[in-house]
Amino acid sequence: MIKLIASDMDGTLLNHAMEVPEKNIAAVKQAQAAGIEFITATGRGIAHAKSALDHADIHVPMILLNGARIIDEAGKTVFAAPIEREKAFQILDLLDAQQIYYEIFTDEHVYSQNQAFRIDFFADRAQEIMPQLTKKQAIATTSKEMLKLPLTYVENIQQQVLAADEEVLKIIAFDKIGPEHLAPIREKLHALGGLAVTSSEETNLEINHQDAQKGIALAHYAESKGLTADEIMAIGDNLNDISMLSYAKTSFAMGNAAPEVKQIATNYTATNEENGVAQAIEYVLAQNGPSFNP
């Protein structure tokens, strides 16, 4: 019997407009009304994650930054797994040497050194999703969306982190070409040891402490609630979801999921544009049956 549902956000709970569709909102609230707890598991930081969930009036615990941080419904941190500072700076040196754009996440900030690159990169992404946009329109759309994010632009991230004495929870690297450029860097990162290196898209690398993975974080949260993997369902679409899909006894790959994700999941659902999360929740509610009593 399922008592906890964990869902990825981008490409899963959210549609391409980065919103939670009405059918998904209704399904989440239906599950909660039936006594099933819902938790999001995302690569996003807290402010970025909350912006979409608050708009949908969904208030739940969150696994953030791929598992580097867990917060309860009140926003209190219950678990954190930062990257050791010396190793974080080794990673940044490696990315700088390869001229790869990156951002880092701390408890309080998201730091970037290149606003122009970020706008251009995500404008290209917007055009891929909405090909009707001109480049100028895509840049305008991207710039507007960026105003919602707590990005802090600095000249030197390493100096900023040292000065503020902040822990690095996640580093994300972006490259327009994608796997061809990022694969050799992934190998060098693995050689450093002690890291979890995954991707939420072909054009990025998400770098965390080896204990900061969605599956590890979900297991930690489940244990704190006295739940086992048999009582958990997980839903996701990309490589950074594999650890939690592997952990949960019941798992759903989105219709738009990467092939590797579909190989791991025990079930399939529709795409994020077709309310796949709502369909997966409906399945669980039917399996639990009317006799379910939390």
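Above is the first protein from milestone M3; the second protein from the same milestone is given next.
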Amino acid sequence: MKYTLLFTLLFFFSCKPETERLPILGEPTTIQGKKVYPRIGDFSFTDQDGKKITNRTFEGKIYVADFIFLSCPTICPIMNQELKKVYTVYQNNSKVNFLSHTIDPEHDTVEKLKAFKTSQKLNSHWFFVTGSKDSIFELATKSYMTPAYPDAEEPGGLVHGGGLLLIDNNRHIRGVYDGTNPEETKRLINDIGILLKELMK
């Protein structure tokens, strides 16, 4: 009896995956018999230092993306506070970056983004980017699958999702987290650790 139990336990543990793996989000298509998941589209924006930021900026890295605007009177300050908790954990890891897109490029100039980043005392791993409103809105809705559009009836005149999006080195979305929920922040911190292990394989 005890040997049967021992073999059962050995079988159970040998069949468990060595590490947890995050799902790839989005509806896949099948190409030549293989599932192909959607990827973040090509982009080119300008950061708070006036430098060009593209997909290549994040090659070999993972990053957390969000969509905000500096004059946002509702959820943006909370989102920034929660994302800063994540940043604090990973700020010294060059493989983890942060990418905040303004959805109000007419007012959030490079200079204002720079001033905001400086006030937050953030290092070079966190980018605040601007570009044409159309390109930012299109990237948000088509690649990151999060809403972003003008609405005069909304506070601040703009609508955007409150999600924090975890992107892997293959430009896949691996997690979406409520940027106003501290419990979701903890989940994001944990999932970044899981994704880092995958990246290092």
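Note on the second protein: Residues 1-17 have pLDDT under 50 and may be disordered.
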